[in-house]
Amino acid sequence: MSDRHYIEVPGNRTHELPPLLIHGEGAANATHVEDVLDLAEDIVEAEDMILPADEGVVEQRKHDLALQLVERYFGLVAHWQWGDSILEWIRQCEITFGAEETLRKLLHPDLWPHASRSSFVTLLADKAVPMRGVGLEKAVGLRLTFRQPPPIDCFSNQFLSYLNSTVADSAYQTWAHMTAEAPVFLPPERFHFQVHELKQ
Fold first, then answer.
1. Contact at 8 Å (CB) between 46 and 102?
2. What tens digit of pLDDT does each residue of 53-104 get?
3. Is 100 contained in some domain?
């Protein structure tokens, strides 16, 4: 934190930012889970993930692997939903900054999503927003990668098992470091906002 350059915000008042509204699917219904499990079983079958063994053992292993893929897929979707909510929150923050004279000059007028907007992601980390097991940069990286969460059958088992974190982190780091200027951070003590999880 000592090497960070925090931007100087005129005055000494705390600025109220829009609430961060986390849109989630809520509890997945049983039909949806069964459909996703069927698709995961197709992935296990198509990618020949099980070594030959006794037929009963093979079927149980296939089912267990499919369950693991479903769990990882729903984890990916949860990250994507957080990322989508965060990018929408950044858009709302831009509107707030544009409407306030003291904040208007702090943002560069580049096309959104400019890399300098990663300052808002860092602000979320500085404010210790409870993420419920979701990685902040991974969430934003997945949303930067996918406009919508793809269905499970678009993914390979390798992506679901190993690659999604690497791809998401790489996407976020590329986005966050695209500006030629040194990163500028928003002083967390000068901003306040609430976080609401919306269940559908």
1. no
2. 666 677 888 888 889 999 999 999 999 999 999 999 999 999 999 898 888 8
3. yes
C-alpha 149/C-alpha 146 separation (Å) is 6
pTM: 0.86
Sequence-ordered list of residues with C-beta below 8 angstroms from that of 38, at least 6 positions apart, any chain: none
Is 2 a domain residue?
no
Number of domains making up the chain: 1
User: Is residue 73 exposed (0-12), middle (13-18) or buried (19+ Cβ within 10 Å)?
Assistant: buried
Range(s) of the domain holding residue 125: 21-199
DSSP string across the chain: -TT--BPPPSSSPPEEPPPEEEEE--SPPHHHHHHHHHHHHHHHHHTT-S-S--HHHHHHHHHHHHHHHHHHHHHHHHHHHHHHHHHHHHHHHHHHHHH-HHHHTTS--PPSS-GGGHHHHHHHHHTT---TT--HHHHHHHHHH-SSPPPGGGS-HHIIIIIHHHHHHHHHHHHHT-SSSPP-B--GGGEE--EEEEE-
Does residue 15 belong to any structural domain of this protein?
A: no
Pick from 176, 195, 174, 194: nearest CA to 185: 176
